[in-house]
Write a structure and sequence with these properties.
The complex is a heterodimer of chains A (314) and B (412). In chain A, 71% of the residues lie in helices and 0% in strands. With 314 residues, chain A is mainly alpha-helical. Chain A has one domain: Orthogonal Bundle (MetI-like fold). In chain A, helix 2 packs across helix 14, helix 5 packs across helix 8 and helix 13 packs antiparallel against helix 14. Chain A starts with a helix and ends with a helix. Chain B has 2 domains: 189 residues, 3-Layer(aba) Sandwich (D-Maltodextrin-Binding Protein, domain 2), CATH 3.40.190; 192 residues, 3-Layer(aba) Sandwich (D-Maltodextrin-Binding Protein, domain 2). The chains are: A mainly alpha (314), B alpha/beta (412). Chain B: Keywords: Signal, Transport.
Chain lengths: 314, 412
Amino acid sequence: MAIADTTATDDRVADRPASAKKPMRLFRNLMPKLALTPMALTAVVVFLGGTIWTVVYSFTSSGLLPRLDWVGLEQYDRLWSTTKWIVSIQNLALYGFLSLIFTLVIGFTLAAMLDRKIRGEAVFRTIFLYPFALSFIVTGLVWQWILNPDYGVQGVVRSLGWESFTFNPLNNPDIVMYGLLIAGLWQGTGLIMCIMLAGLRGIDEDIWKATRVDGIGTVKTYVQVIIPMMRPVFVTSVVLIASGIIKLYDLVVAQTSGGPGISSEVPAKYVMTAMFGGQNLGQGFAASSMMLLGVVIILVPWAFLEFGGRKKRV
Amino acid sequence: MKLTTKMLGATAIVAASATAANAVEMEVMHWWTSGGEAAAVAQFAEALNNNTDNTWLDGAIAGGGDVARPVMVSRIIGGDPPAAFQFNHGRQAEELVEAGLLLDLTDVAEEQNWAEIINPPSLLEACTYDGRVYCAPVNIHSWQWMWLSNAAFETAGVEVPQSWTEFVETVPALEEAGITPLAMGGQAWQQNGSFGVMAIALAGEEAWLAVNRDKDAEVARGPEYARVFEAFGAARDYSAGLQVQDWNQATNAVIEDTAAAQIMGDWAQGEFALAGEVAGEDYSCLPGLGEVAVLDTGGDAFFFPVTGDPEMEAAQKELAALLLSPEVQVAFNSAKGSLPIRGDVDLTTVNECTQKGLDLLAAGQTLPSGNELLSPDTITQLNDLMTQFWNDTSMTPADVQEQYAQIIESAS
């Protein structure tokens, strides 16, 4: 597209004999380019440079300080033979899958309900969005207390007379990830709801009128007409949710610190513990390189489909 | 004209800094932020401000060693080092020394005769790399303690045990009385630390040193350690009734007599004192689980980064000497509840348990701490393994022993 634009302007310039000098391409739109330079440099040096540096040093035996002492794939060997890493990956997969689905479903349902022009919409919107204003650390601590068997939900229900009631996810290795998931959803769905609501508001009123004329039910309209029209909104939401899943760390630290045992460990926490607790930078770099690889494997085909496809359509 | 004024100004600044030559502001970084700890570190600050021309600039970092250490390291690597910083005794600073980033204190050590006054000598060894001294040890903390609630055993109708073996015999009576026999927090370091205590007490010093110092995996696979893992597995069952995270919550269960005992370092005694309990009456203590009376000697030491500034260097050496002086040692360790690193001083307030510790130190019944023998990397691996075992009842002592031996085998 950019190329097409340039040739078009070039033609116009050539048509006009008065402006004899052809402006150089490099200096066209100079101000925006200047303004973009710092960000471009940051992206290249900090993100790309940092990434390459990390991957390179993951092949060394760096301990407390980075040093170029090559050990080949030793760090990766150790990584994949460590139970904690395997558990971390499984936990992240479970959390990621459920978090993605439930955030989208709950976020959209809440937004659709608010969009029905209910009374006190602003109040509900604030209430739903409010948890997002809290950091993961606070969220984690709050839910640690709510899920505490003695003082939280279980304690309250038991004190109401249901003595055998048991709801103690944070101390049960089998379901601890669901305890984290509840807190994560509580914190994150509000934002997705707001984005979805903005998307719903962007739908033309005439669409609704047309479906009403055709006699299509509300739910069917949502599923078959509105949701396909909101594709860009869903893409934004998925990107936001996915990046939140990958960096899942502070919630775990605050709520369970990886416990009981190692049953709620996540990859980001593995990286932090290896680098700063264990003074083993090489191992931490290897683990973070694997995280990057995972993101790339999932993201590249998807981005290709999503954004590559659109270019062809235009 | 302009240039002259500038030069005059520059000269004035140089002159000003020259007159203040002896007063250096020393930023000291540490992670002592709890009440008792802050009171203790204030003793250092006071000593520095009163005894020298230098001033103490407090660089406390909240969140414990794992948070503070990376901050300190990045300050040092980044070329903006503090005047001094706290690390634990042991191998945490090994690489900084190798990289030549830390000040050599050998002349201070020789002048102050550290080789004579520091007890146990292993603390000075932990500061020594290739024959040069790089840190000033300031206190001793030991893991080798079991704390027992006298009232809990009374409720269960049994005598307060004098050893781990006796303790095991009282377990059925305790459980019958509805008391959790052993309190254990949910954090990995607590479980791994308790295992270390049980290993010294039940496998004996020799086997423990063979595994931790010589990294002998055969001993780790052997029958002595098998006994330790069996006992550790049993301890897992003893603690099943209590679900707490932090070590002080577990200590609190012992204080409230809902749990009978806890294996925890001497810092737990601060909690008993805070609750107004009296050693010998309300609670008892068993160094080395009453089996092998020996203390491991962990604790804290101060390191001094190289700054290239001769004035700072002189001030750093002055501070190093000051930290080990008898008055400062007494004031600091009394406030912190730790043991002094020199045997020739008397603490102001000593209870029955602290006295037991001091006696063991005086008798030379000490071992180096796990931190001194194992790298932080290995300790992290062991933490993970022990906490996995502790929380996964399908894992047998034999499984964990084999994995333990593998970690020891690959340890450096």
